[in-house]
Amino acid sequence: MTHRRHRSDRPSPEGLDLCRQRCQGGSGGIAGQQEESTVFENSRAFPGVSTDDVAASKEFYADRLGLTVTDTMGGIDVELPGGAHLFVYEKPNHEPSSYTFLNFGVEDIDAAVDELRAAGVETKIYSDEDFPTDSRGIARGLGGGPDIAWFKDPSGNVLAVLADPGPDA
């Protein structure tokens, strides 16, 4: 594992030479030493969110959102579009997120909101004083941002669908 310096540490002369080599496009290694990798270089990163009811969360992510859900490590693994994974775990003193912890970029936000509402998911979760939305909960171009609709999982964590034209736009 590579040692990380604190800002208050003074670099060694070898460290300054290494920095100069890297900045100038050199190999980056000190003579006679192999470059080390970090512990995170080959890791698998994934976000996690707490719940007060794993069974209700499993039903929500699988049946209402249509995502693949697997029991794992005392919680559930939710396979997200694009191949990422979300770990949902039970926490006795769970407090819902006060922010949008997960966004789903969609090509057609109106169709996405229709699908959510048909599955029993409420998409008008904020008052118009907080975020002005239409009757279905879609904020259109709020503050110059994309069209977006927020919703909550069974534990009160906030998610969103937002208009995302895709990489070709």
Automatic annotation (TrEMBL):
Annotated region described as Disordered, given as residue ranges: 1-34
SUPFAM superfamilies registered for this protein in UniProt: Glyoxalase/Bleomycin resistance protein/Dihydroxybiphenyl dioxygenase
Ranges annotated as spanning the membrane: none
Domain VOC: 43-164
Signal peptide residues on this chain, from the entry's feature table: none
Biased composition (Basic and acidic residues): 9-20
Domain of life: Bacteria
Record-linked InterPro entries: Glyas_Bleomycin-R_OHBP_Dase, Glyas_Fos-R_dOase_dom, VOC_core
Protein name: VOC family protein
Species this chain originates from: Naasia lichenicola
